[in-house]
Design goal:
- The chain is elongated and about 55 Å long.
- It has 247 residues and is an all-alpha fold.
- The chain has two domains: 14-90, Arc Repressor Mutant, subunit A, CATH 1.10.10.10; 95-238, GntR ligand-binding domain-like (Four Helix Bundle (Hemerythrin (Met), subunit A), Up-down Bundle).
- The N and C termini lie far apart (46 Å).
- Helix content is 68%, strand content 2%.
- It has helices at residues 3-6, 29-42, 54-61, 65-78, 96-120, 123-141, 145-162, 166-184, 188-206, 210-238, and strands at 82-84, 88-90.
- Helix 5 packs parallel to helix 9, helix 7 (145-162) packs parallel to helix 9 (188-206) and helix 9 (188-206) packs antiparallel against helix 10.
Length: 247
């Protein structure tokens, strides 16, 4: 399985267009602004609950208000942006209970994905995973967090392909896209810990041990989820003016 087949091309920061260059792209301006704003939200550039005003976004993306207005409407339809009467648009603010439900579901889906990948991994895919494992281990040894993050991303993408269940892959893609911001801002330590946990899952998949791969994948998401919920609780307690996230 080649990198192109798995959709695992390296994420080169130098190739990412600047937000201020959106107006110069050949893509439809409305689509370009919508895509850029969506990615910024999913990457955590805008925080949960943060207001999204047309004026500030137009300045950020170096465009007029019209494509911003259309982008906010489109993202509201798909759930990436929410609007409230007299308050305008903002990044959705999930309650603690909702976040716990998302983590619970993601843990189960990741476990299934790892199990199917272990069961259906052929020699070509296994060779690719060994290469990914070696690459990530070298990055960890060299403390290259940027490369580690790329390896962590490839880990998830490769399982979706190797598991050969299009419906599961579709559900996971949809869930991950809508909740990516929950997992976007990671400390350098967490990026390294993610790889260590991913490496253990990779070894289980390479060894065709589906049960172990599933257990490790579920545990990985649950432990990460505990960190996220603890951070949400601490944030809410430290700033009582923040809208309650515990309901």
């Amino acid at each position: 399985m080649s990198n192109d087949e798995a959709g695992l091309a390296d994420d080169d920061p130098d190739q990412r267009p600047s937000w201020a260059q959106i107006g110069a792209s050949h893509k439809s301006l409305n689509h370009a602004v919508t895509d850029a704003l969506r990615q910024a939200i999913l990457n955590g550039e805008f925080k949960p609950g943060e207001r999204l005003t047309e004026a500030s976004l137009a300045a950020t993306f170096n465009v007029s208000r019209n494509p911003i207005r259309d982008a906010l409407r489109a993202l509201q339809v798909e759930g990436t942006v929410e609007r409230t009467p007299r308050k305008g648009a903002r990044v959705p603010l999930l309650s603690l209970g909702e976040v716990e439900e998302i983590i619970e579901l993601r843990a189960e889906l990741e476990g299934m994905s790892a199990k199917y990948a272990a069961r259906r991994c052929n020699e070509e895919s296994r060779a690719f995973l060994r290469t990914l494992l070696d690459r990530g281990n070298r990055a960890a040894k060299q403390n290259d967090t940027e490369l580690l993050q790329a390896c962590n991303n490839q880990f998830h993408q490769s399982f979706a392909q190797i598991g050969k269940n299009r419906f599961l892959a579709g559900f996971m893609k949809s869930l991950n896209e809508k909740t990516q911001w929950l997992f976007a801002k990671r400390s350098e330590k967490r990026v390294t810990e993610n790889w260590k946990e991913h490496a253990a899952i990779l070894k289980a998949v390479i060894a065709a041990d589906g049960e172990l791969a599933s257990v490790l994948a579920v545990r990985h998401v649950e432990e990460l989820g505990e960190e996220i919920t603890k951070r949400m609780i601490a944030s809410n307690q430290s700033d009582p003016s923040i809208e309650s996230q515990t309901t």
